[in-house]
Amino acid sequence: MTAFAIKGWCPTALRPMLSGDGLVVRIRPRGGRLSAMQVSGIADLASCHGNGLVDLTGRANLQIRGVSVEGHAALIAGLAELELIDADVELEAQRNILAAPFWTAGDDTQRFAAELEHALAKRQLSLPHKFGFAVDCGFELVLAQAAADVRIERAACGGLIVRADGAELGRAVAKENAVETALALATWFVASGGANGGRGRMAAHIARGAELPVTLAGDTAPAAMASQSRPGLVAEGALVGLAFGQLQSATLKALSSLGPGLRLTPWRMILLEGASDMPRHEGLVTRADDPCLRVAACTGAPACPEAKAETRALAAALASHLPKDTRLHVSGCAKGCAHPTASDVTLVGTESGFDLVRHGTARDLPALRDLSREKILGDPALWLGAP
Fold first, then answer.
1. Which domain holds residue 174?
2. Closest by alpha carbon to 258, among 106, 39, 55?
3. Are 306 and 367 part of one and the same domain?
4. I need a surface site. Which of 7, 84, 273, 344 has the fewest CB within 10 A?
5. Cα separations (Å) of 343 from 60, 199, 325, 329?
6. pLDDT tens-digit series, residues 241-286
């Protein structure tokens, strides 16, 4: 029996989610970018109406935490002044677009993200709330492992394809047809029963045997995947990690003064546009070899009502013990929100301690059960599997 509640939807600004530390208000930046003024404004709003904590999610969104029910309206008014609010809840829910961050002004990624947003605003597709699009038009794919259902991508041959998540090949398209083909693929998904009561995902739909129509199926391979992005200077600025995907509003405020804007990524890293030096602020991960980059940890107790244990302090204490190339996931419950896919080691909070899963997810069968926090901290060889 499931020991946690599956909500089947993600919070937005207009439809926040109640957590253990108050309302969680999610902001979806247009094109994955925030101007310096917007970043500064979000930091001020998080301090005034939240508890000062801001999350960067695996969908490249920001979340203001700890908002009171009474303060939500004032927060929305502030976000509206920053032009970060949609006209209604349904439009906000459909505008789930992940854009690769390494674009240059006017290139295909920026163009298609804007066109797709505009087209979604005109259509009412009744997509599941977790259904999303990825726009990944660089000559190496950086979003191939990020959550998305319909992908506009660069092809191995240099052209463009639209690909259903879960399909190895995509349909070759001309630039003027890319967005329309992506929307047609989303429309087919709903019409063919993929929505599954509002919780469906494209890859699962295809895995269950759904066959793409001839007009949407393709035979063109996507470009190669880029190597994993790590903190450091890149052509577009400075790529900076956030420890466990969270930072203080004061740190966000400081970052707003370092360049014209920020680009958000699904790797819990932010790109500081135009920066020529790595910033130095508490909570930022600036070294490419920092072990925190190989540790995932959810919000945990008491901030999350589903969590059975505190997670992030434990994860931080264990990070220094990680061997190179080993990934650790510390989850407050078996839902595994912070890292739904497999890790080398996963610790899952329970009513009686932590269960340990090796080479699996938080929902898999544990190798050891009911480990105390003290036992885990005192015996790294136990959870690392060393002799």
1. 102-207
2. 39
3. yes
4. 7
5. 21, 24, 11, 6
6. 999 999 999 999 999 999 999 999 999 999 999 999 999 888 899 9
